[in-house]
Amino acid sequence: MKALKLLLLLPIIALLVGCGGGEKSASNATRFGTGGTGGMYYAYGTELAKMIDAEGKGHALDVKMTAGSAANLRLLREKFLDLAIVQSDTLSNAINGRGVFAAAGPGVGYAAVAGLYTEACQIVVSKNSGINNVSELVGKRVSVGERESGVLQNAEQILMAHGLTFEMIETIYMSFTDSATAMEKGQIDAFFITAGAPTKAIADLATKKEIKILSIDPDVQNNMMKLYKGYTRCTIPANTYTGQNEDVQTIGVKAVLVASTDLKDDEVTFLTEFIFKNADKLPHNTTNKLTVDYAIQDIPASFHAGAAKFYDMQGVKVNIYSGKSSESVKASQD
């Protein structure tokens, strides 16, 4: 029981330690939940914090490492975070109180700011593993992401779409960086990552070991998009990673910036405007460009009033968070 309590406290302990954003990571800085150091959430958060700090207008982000999307949404709800990046499919589950969020009920206390970029579901294996399809992972040692990560749900759903369950593989729960290290050492046969491509953990591994990323059959993609809200087709272009000579066809979800409704409207308006102004300088999936249309489409949550103010200045109306959970989000051009 003591071990379990310690495990549950680890994300909070990590948050209290934090990663900081330089000298301005004071108590009044906006606490920004990202993910592990090997993923794009963390790269995005740290770069955004540096850029905001360099502008010197009195704003600051205190970047926090977390287990990922599900943890971020829980920590937002529990007021340990002010801002976070999460997967759109995980956000949908939280808003509706489904899956791991069923016990907590429909999500309240946070609202959308913007869809940032598309995250690719990437299934990595050694090039000489003989594994060419997800269905061939039976009996293999597979890292399915950290507990409380969005990756974990994606891995389970992708496996199920291929007729597999966690019981049919040797399931291991590791971060992006730890998964890449374990593969380099030959300790695992495959790992799942959902992140914008290129993802640092995979890119670093590809320079040390020959790997390949499995494609998902178009029919399986179709079935998954029908069954689960939030998925979209996604292509990882050839040469995204060292030794990757062909396009990889997979599925993806949208990375969504979410803010606590306690975060002041002016702060969220500033952040939204800053992100759009500097979108090309921030880490992102190079296959999509941040536009207002992209930022507001297919977002399974209402928007923060501060973000809505920015979109209103662009001639776009969005549903504003009213204090209730809602997945009905509409946008219209004025």
- Structural class by secondary-structure content: alpha/beta
| Oligomeric state of the chains in view | single chain
Number of H- or I-type helical stretches? 11
CATH architecture of the largest domain: 3-Layer(aba) Sandwich
Q: What's the CATH first level of the largest domain? A: Alpha Beta
Radius of gyration: 19 Å
How is the biggest beta sheet arranged? 10 strands, mixed
The CATH topology of the largest domain is given as: D-Maltodextrin-Binding Protein, domain 2
Regions with little confidence, pLDDT below 50 for 5+ residues: 1-17, 19-25, 326-334
Mean pLDDT: 89
Strand content: 15-25%
> Helical residue percent?
25-40%
CATH fourth-tier homologous superfamily of the largest domain: Periplasmic binding protein-like II
Outline the structure in words:
- The chain is α/β, with parallel strands linked by helices and 334 residues long.
- The protein folds into two domains: 187 residues, 3-Layer(aba) Sandwich (D-Maltodextrin-Binding Protein, domain 2), CATH 3.40.190; 134 residues, 3-Layer(aba) Sandwich (D-Maltodextrin-Binding Protein, domain 2), CATH 3.40.190.
- Helix content is 34%, strand content 21%.
- The chain has eleven helices and twelve strands.
- Strands 1, 2, 3, 4, 5, 6, 7, 8, 9 and 10 form a ten-stranded mixed beta sheet that branches. Strands 11-12 form a two-stranded antiparallel sheet.
- Helix 6 runs parallel beside helix 7 and helix 9 crosses helix 11.
- The N terminus and C terminus are likely disordered.
